[in-house]
Structures are given as structure tokens and as C-alpha cells.
Write a structure and sequence with these properties.
The chain is of the alpha+beta class. Helix content is about 15%, strand content about 30%. It has a single domain, classed as Beta Barrel (Thrombin, subunit H). The longest helix has 19 residues. About 50% of the residues are buried. Bound molecules: arginine. It comes from Crossiella cryophila.
Length: about 270
Amino acid sequence: MATTLHRLVKFIGVAAAAVTLGLAPGAMASAAPPPEPSMDPLIVGGTAATTQQYPWTVALLLDGTQWCGGTLAAPNKVVTAAHCTAGKAVSRWQIVAGRTDLRTSEGHTAKVTKVWQHPGYRSVTQGDDVAVMTLDRNLNYTTLPLAKPADSGLYKAGTQARALGWGDTTGNGDYSDTLRQVVVPLTSDQTCASAYSEYKSASMVCAGFPQGGKDTCQADSGGPLVINGKLVGITSWGEGCAQAGKPGVYARVSSYYTQLSTQISS
Ligand code: ARG
């Protein structure tokens, strides 16, 4: 019941976000073609994954309900999106590692003692959508290294990137109890800039197929986008989910390497 209520509240939030992005209410749902029965539209268009395979992928529960994803970058530090943490009291969070299926009590949990949000963060479309949470204990799972400025080669258009999360699988508020993954190619800056006038290549990177069909979606935010064993992106925003010509937008981790590293090692 509580879950249903929170997810309803979240869905209303999503509708509000659509208005913020200048879309008509309901446009996100109605603009997308109905999913084809054969395409298994699950993250959207993904497949099952486990936290054994991706041990650094964590769920961020707000008041006990899955809200965002995150990446374990040190045993007591989680990298996530600033739009996930903005305006939320630290006491409301529970961080869950090692739990593929959120209906179980597998794995380990931690509370949050401190949140650092990028000081420049204002809204997802303005960029700087990065945050680091400090946990009250170590979660002893494998951590994921961040992409550095010297890793700019990883950001070449067409590079296959893997995103993970427990988010919406259809764009209609169908949240997943189990971890999902999707592999999507990075787009060029030019492709993303023509999809979104707000795109900023210094703080964002886009991924998705021209025809759509595979994407992250609501409640995947804050979660990892990974190439070659490095965190290259943080799920941030998009117009609808998995729509043709509207790739997912991720915070460009290499641009924030110094600031994030300072927080992770503090
Ligand atoms: N902002 C969303 C969240 O809070 C993530 C949206 C990602 N959208 C996309 N089309 N890739 O969960």
C-alpha cells in the first residue's frame, strides 16, 4: 500500500517534470507508440541483471520505497544524481546493496549521514546533476572506478554503454522489483544537441538508438552508465523514455572527476 502510494506520488512528479520540460501533460505516455508485445519492454527494452554481476549497483530507497539508483565508489560512498537528493532530508534514505530483488531482504543496507550535491546544480536540464552520499557504515561490495578526463576515448560516439536500475520498464509507471540492464550506444554531441536544445557537452552525455526502444526511465536516475569497467555516466533525464530521436541524458562523470574524487576520498 505504502509502495503503491509512493509510486503514485512519483508518477505525478514525473507528469510535473514533463510540464517542466515543456511537454503537454500526458505527452510522455501518449507520444510513445504502444510497446510491441514481442520486444519485452523491460529498464525499457532491457534484460534481467543481478547484483552479483554488478555488485556496485545500489538501490536508493526514500522512506522505504525504491526511488533512484546509485553506484558504490568506495565502501561508504555512493555516487548518484543531485536531482535524486535535492531537498530530501538525509534521514529518509536507505541504501541497499546486494539485493537483486527488492522484495527480499538479501544483501546489506546502510543509512546516509551526509550528502554532497554539486554546488552548481539547479535542475537536470541545466547540468551538474551529480551528488555523493556518505554512508553510516561500509558496504563491503566491489566498487566501480570513475571515468577520468584522460578516459575521453570512452566517450566516442557509438561506444556501447550499459545502464542498470530498478526503474520504470514501460514509461507508464511500471517499476521493476528486480534489477534490469540495457546496453545503448553513446551518441555524438551533435546528435544530442539536435535532440535537446538544453544539451551541454561539458556536463552531459547521451545514449540511445536513433529508433529508440531501449533506455533508462523514471527511478533509474542516479544509477550507473558503465563502459569498460568505469562509471562514465549517471542517469539524469530525457523526454519520455525510449522514444525515437530522444536519447537518455546522463551526467558526464569524467567532467566531475576531481570534485567527485575529493568527496569519495574525504
Ligand atoms: N529523471 C529520471 C529519474 O528521476 C530518469 C530519466 C531518464 N530518462 C531517460 N529517458 N533516459 O528517474
